[in-house]
Amino acid sequence: MIILVYDRFVNTRFPKVIEAAEEAGEIIRRYFGELLEVEEKTMAADFRTKADVDAEAKILEILAKEYPDYGILSEETGHNGQKSEFQFVIDPLDGTNNFSLGIPNFSVSIALQQNERTIFGVIHQPITMETYWAELGRGAWNNSKKLSVNSENKLPKSTLFSCVGYDNNLKERQILRYNLSGPKAQGLKRWAENWAVAMDCCLVADGRAEIMVMKGLELHDFAAGKLIAKEAGARSTDLSGEKDDDQSTAFILSNGTSVHEQVLSAIKLTHYDR
């Protein structure tokens, strides 16, 4: 059953984008739990299923009708060739590996960028039926609940999410983890590698986690989630602590307290920012 987006999102200028995310989510939800054939893309860890393809087709159908002149960059089909200052960035199923394993941690992610700056983002979790969304300068929401990061400033009480690209250096990541949570470190409440970047961003935005360290990602992985977190009060920098932008594929996203600087210090010791 599709949620009536117009009843819950009367304050957004982009209800059709939310509708596209939720309709795609309904397709994914129906497939969840089935044993679907896997199509390998660049390597064994990088693959798609029929759920990815069908969800993307539904999103493209809705957006192409509503925004015929906008560019669209989508994970499975690439760019539509439309030249425009506006571009949708789509991940029809972020967390495909989790989905295929029967782990209910995945989402639909759609961002709208204007001249490479994200102005709107929506992330829909089909199992919990949560729809996170944000507009630039207008705040972030989970359905009709306004979002805000938490104020935790102690690293041992913080949850850190980490995700890297498929070709990232495993040894560097292990050293960073040791520097943050090894026997000589302050420690963390939890280090988690969920392989669900969009939802990781939402959990920081919703005050349920404190910080993320991301490196070597694709734009569709984080474009919507990064805006949602920042509109909820999150701080975003590159891995050396400098200001980043909406296209940066390596970044720290946090609740903006001193945990940000503490993680930056560990990154510098590890040389993970190179």
UniProtKB/TrEMBL annotation:
One of its GO terms (molecular function) is metal ion binding. It is an enzyme of class 3 (hydrolase). Mg(2+) 2 binds at residue 93. GO terms for biological process: inositol metabolic process; signal transduction. SUPFAM superfamilies: Carbohydrate phosphatase. Mg(2+) 1 binds at residues 75, 91, 94, 221. Pfam families: Inositol_P (PF00459). Its cofactor is Mg(2+). This is Inositol-1-monophosphatase. Belongs to the inositol monophosphatase superfamily. Keywords: Hydrolase, Magnesium, Metal-binding. It catalyses: a myo-inositol phosphate + H2O = myo-inositol + phosphate. The keyword Thylakoid does not apply. InterPro entries: IMPase, Inositol_monoP_metal-BS, Inositol_monophosphatase-like. Its EC number is 3.1.3.25.
